[in-house]
Amino acid sequence: MVTDCLFCKIAANEIPAELVYETERTLAFRDVNPQAPTHVLVITKAHHADAAALAEADEGLADEVVKTAHAVAVREGTAESGYRLVFNTGPAAGQTVPHVHCHVLGGRDLGWPPG
Ligand code: 5GP
Ligand code: ZN
Fold first, then answer.
1. Helix (H) or strand (E) holding 34
2. Which residue among 31, 54, 99, 105 is best mutated to probe the pocket of ligand 1, counting the most ligand atoms within 8 A of its Cβ?
3. Is 101 a catalytic site residue?
4. pTM of the predicted model, to two decimals?
5. Ligand 1 atom having least distance to the Cα of 6
6. Backbone angles phi, psi at 48, to 5 degrees
7. Residue 58 C-alpha to ligand 1 middle, in angstroms?
8. Which residues are within 8 A (CB) of 70 and not within 5 positions of it... i.e. 6 or more apart?
9. What CATH number belongs to 6-106?
10. Using CA atoms, how far apart are residues 38 and 49, in angstroms rounded to an integer?
């Protein structure tokens, strides 16, 4: 755990979040500022800064994050109509929390390209 990391604190139950799904190494909870009817964040319980770090992390962890994201979409009822997975990575992408998280967005027509 990284002491000053917001999502490490959520993973450690030190900051409350509305959990929707959990696996051994991942956690899914609702975004506090939702941009769609379904807006869930999937994080790794262990600290990894971003998608680049996740790609180099433990065997199968990136796979587990995507599988958790899909399980969330199924549970939220958006798997058939469609959903979007987003990893904002670095400043140009607008990443604001430096602990890897996959946005699961769905429940409306999301449009493309994103605004
Ligand atoms: P980023 O911009 O880094 O890709 O996304 C960070 C996301 O975390 C934002 O969508 C923001 O609304 C969400 N967020 C920030 N602080 C909290 C929090 O304390 N709890 C929850 N559940 N979401 C948060
Ligand atoms: Zn962290």
1. none
2. 31
3. yes
4. 0.97
5. 19
6. -135, 135
7. 24
8. 79
9. 3.30.428.10
10. 24
Q: Which residues lie below 8 Å from residue 57, measured CB to CB, with a gap of 6+?
A: 44, 46, 48
List, for residues 90-106, the tens digit of each pLDDT value. Answer: 999 999 999 999 999 99
AA letter at 92: A
Q: Tens digits of per-residue pLDDT, 19-69?
A: 999 999 999 999 999 999 999 999 999 999 999 999 999 899 999 999 999
The atom number, within ligand 1, closest to the CA of 15 reads: 19
Nearest-atom number in ligand 1 for the CA of 88 is 4
- Which amino acid type is present at position 1? M
Q: Which residues contact 65 (CB under 8 A, 6 or more apart)?
A: 26, 42, 44, 54, 100, 102
Task: Pick from 30, 35, 96 the residue to mutate for probing ligand 1's pocket: most ligand atoms within 8 Å of its CB.
Answer: 96
* Single-letter code of the amino acid located at 79: A
